[in-house]
Structure formats: structure tokens, C-alpha cells
Design a protein that fits this description.
By secondary structure, the protein is of the alpha+beta class. The protein is built from eleven helices and seven strands.
Length: 356
Amino acid sequence: MLHLLKKHLDISGDDTKVIDVLNQHSFVEQKKLLEHLQVILSQQTSLHFTYINAHKNIEGSIDANIDGNIEQNLKHNIAPFKGLQLQHLKRILSQQAGSAEYKAQLNVTGDIPQGVDEVAVRFSPLLGDIVLKVIRPQQEIIRSATLSNRYKISLANANLAGSNAIVPTRIKLAADYIYQGFVHILPLGLDHILFVLALLLFAKRRSTLLWQISAFTLAHTITLALGIYGVVALSSAIVEPLIALSIVYVGVENIYRAQTNTTSYARMPIIFAFGLLHGLGFASVLGDLGLAQSQYALSLISFNIGVELGQLTVIALAFMCLYPLRSKVWYQKRLVLSLNVAIAIIAIYWLIERLI
């Protein structure tokens, strides 16, 4: 619910900022806000029906002759959403950010028109990327404001699991999860970006960078898999502050080792341990997305590939920016030191923010 309100009100900042803004509204204003939000969600969400019925014209449709059949594609706005309750919002506002369950269930019902062969759905951009589960265990990821796959409808058979739904291909499924893994790093994963940048700034040789990134990648791959399978589980209230602490550590250690002009492979176990923490963060994100049960391994591997591509992109962009400056006399003592200090300060702020 807070995610929706944050996007609707265009508020920047964490949940605490959203709660502060909402607390400035009266109950009447809060009720009107929720009602208005539900109307917007309903107006921006639509079902797209495909009619295939020989020689049958439906008023308001556009007919196209395809192989002797008449196909009509009609867009239907859905009935108003229901589910955003003022009582739920009051409970959220009465608790500290991070201590309440913010999930809201939106409900809508309607009738399927006669003669419909297929249906697709487009959700409101306010909902962001959507994991659509139509026929378990099949699912697909719908990117924000885009149209889903078309699903066949059998009105004669109430059991949709028996109909011929269009199941996303392995290629599309892999592409969807690679995309989600990538955007979790770039641009959404600023904490992971700073950690990777800190590893890059520490490495004076390519071999050092390679060993650090390899240790980090191996570690977060392990806990990503273990977290998704439920073998390892830690609350985000514990994981997120520890991730911030890991960034503080590498930033401060970079400053210290730059002053002593030493490098040590003893750092590898620490990087590996921090990678385990970051993997639990990735697992939390992937858990929210869900995995296609019929392609469980493919979804997991694809998401991890997306994460790695995001990390490599960050390293490549940073390397292109910094490499021409490496020969400058002020590169290590001024630029690298300043960047490490900035990383440490930002991470300290995150640590405090996530603890209070």
C-alpha cells in the first residue's frame, strides 16, 4: 500500500517519509485519497479480449479478415478496484516504518463476454512490474504498463487449468528474469552498486579485482539459491543494516589500506562473507517476484545472470571513467580517497536509517 501511495503522491524517500506526509492528512482526506487512487488504478488497468467467431460482427470492434475468420480485439476497462481500506491505512500509520505489514489485496470481479477466445491484461503503471499467475504453476512477469501474453479462455470448462493457455516460452521467461536481475542492480540497487565500486577502487591490479568479484559472486549465488529454497532465512530488518555495514567496512578499509599502501588476499574471506549477506538481499527481491514453478531452475539462474550483468555493467562504466585518470599523480591520494570517503559516509547514513 505504501508503495502505491508513494508513487501516486510522487514522494521521494523511504517509508518514514511517506508516513509523515500521510499523517498530515485528515481522516477524510486519507479516505478520499484511497478512493481516488482506486479509481486511477481501475482506469489505467484494462482487459483486452480477442473475439474469433466466423461471420459474427460485434458493434464497436474493428474487423480484420484472417483465414476466413473474423477477429475482433476489444479493450475493456475493468470495474473499480476494491481493497484499499482506511482502517488498514490507520494501522500502518500507527506503527513504525518497517514494523508493519504493508501488503494490500485489490479485488475486482466481472463477466467474460460471450464469444471471447483470448484475454490479455495491462495493469496501471503505478503497480510497476507485475508477476501474473493465471494458471498455476505457470506465471509471467509483466513489465510496467505493458500488455501481458494472451491466454485462451474456455467458457465451457470452468477449470481454467484444463484450457490451452499460452505459456510463456523459456526464452521469454529467461529474458524476463534476466531483466529483473539487471534492474535490481542498475538502477535500483544503489547499495550493491556502491559495494562493487568500493571493490573496484581497492583493486590496483586487475587480478585483485577479479579475485574480489569472483568471491563476491560465488557467495551471493550460494545464499540466493539457499534463500529461495528456504534453507537460509533472515529478516530484511537484519539483512539490510548488515548490507549497509558491509559497505561502510569496505569503504573505511579502502581508506586505511591506501594510507598503508598495502594489499592483502586476507580480505577475500571478508568479501565472501559480505557476498553471503548481499545474496540474502537478492533472495528477498526474487522471493517477492516469485519463481515459475514449472521452470524453477531457469528462473533462478536467469535472475542471477541478470544480477551479474548488472554488476559487470557497473564495473565497465566505472572503469571507462576512471582508467584515463589512473596515471595522474592525484588519482590515488585525491580522487580515489574522496570516492571512498563518500561511499563510507553514504553507507553510514544508510546504516543509521535502517537501524532507527
